[in-house]
Amino acid sequence: MVSFYTELFSTSGNLHNDILEDITPAITPEMNTDLLALVTHEEVRKSLFQMHPDKSLGPDGMTPSFFQKCWDIVGSDVVKLVRDFFDTASIPEDLNNTNLELILKKKNLENMGDLRPIALCNVVYKVSFKVMANRLKLFLADIVFENQSAFVPGRLITDNILVSFEIMHYLKRKGKGTVGQMALKLDMSKAYDRVEWPFLEVLLLKLGFHPRCVQLIMALVVSVRYWISSGGKFLGHTTPSWGIHQGDPLSPYLFIICTEVLSSLIRKYETKGWIKGCQVARGAPHITHMFFANDSYLYCRAPEREAQMVMTLLEKYELASGQIVNQEKSSIFFSKNTHSSTQESSCSIMGMPEVGDDGFYLGLPNIMKHNKNAVLGFLKDKMRKRVESWDSKFLSRAGKEVLIKLVAQSLPNYAMSVFLIPKGICEDLEQLMCKFWWKSSSKNKSGIHWMKWDRMCEAKDQGGMVFRHLHDFNIALLGKQAWRLHTLTNSLVGKLFKAKYYPRGSFISVEL
């Protein structure tokens, strides 16, 4: 196991940074001043108290809860350590040691892919990361293009889903025209673990970060050492030579900054006319790609020439960044008018399989078919499995109330933020929760339903339990999306929806 991760964390040594020539500065002198400002006592305290108090222990054997509860005692020492780091760009020895705990994804270990590595850092080290992350977060929208929605304030994962859904719906219905189009769903293999440090450093400088700021960020990145263990047993240690580990607050921001290089390269190819994105309606923006962290969709025309261009730009990005596209897990969806011979040649060039219209993106269906009950039926399966897993437990009414309100009712929230769930599915979900509520501790006894779900949704002073009407909550969540479309008209999803559904008016004035 140790040798596997030692090899995984060892750089390939590629230094092909010519694709960074087109990166333009996005960080202004004023931004650099804010990034390098003197660290304040309140800033460190805020960063610490933003952490979950009961995170798993790192090498220091402490949780954020200890530092939060003892802030009056240890606060000045923590602030001094963080300030010293910002002054010297030097991290004390062993402070950046990280426990890499290997967790089994399934019961039996068959290969190393069945292990999920969890990085556990020292709390004080994470505070330094958090201070820098809080500062950098303020300027992410100026650095990252609108096609990337992850971790950028003001952008949501549902933006990606809505845009992707409209494009996939357009491709499925596109029956006219001689030129087909395709959507490439890319899977990046070990994305966070395959980032070349020289690539990241040069990129930050190209974006306009002050050399001092780059020095601070790179000091946090390159000083890490992993202590690998599984099941509480220490296996060995390794020192990486590339990668940004998923255990600190800054890594997600650094990763999406790296993906901006791929986004810039795609835009360059589009500007030169080498690839052409999808336009779902007249006046809608041409969309060539959508990113959410390492979940990527590329949209272009289907002919061999564009397939070759896409492979060329992906190879350039791989050589420079260290990223690798997992072609076996990636896939291609073709528009309805794409000739079968074109589909075969494009799949052959890219080495990716073709998929149908039953795929998922970011956990939700790519395409909605006529039978919504069949497409969204996975919500019932998900609820049923979760509720059945609680049957073996001896739970009080209070315990059941907590599980229903905090877990069961939250399961469909994600889908309800995007889709209008059929009433039948909402009622089935409520029935599963109601059955769990009234069921006795014995598996063979379903229990008597003394009160229907509608009554149980009323306030407690009226005899209810304040449970949710899922259909009403679905409408409320969609209302949030409606408000975003009405107010954020310059966002990518706002421009696309306006062009397609209300080109001459606003969301409020559109007629159904």
UniProtKB/TrEMBL annotation:
Which Pfam family, any one of them, does this sequence belong to? Answer: RVT_1
Query: Start and end of every Reverse transcriptase domain?
Result: 84-354
Q: Which domain of life is it from?
A: Eukaryota
Protein name stated in the entry: Reverse transcriptase domain-containing protein
Species name for this entry? Cannabis sativa (Hemp)
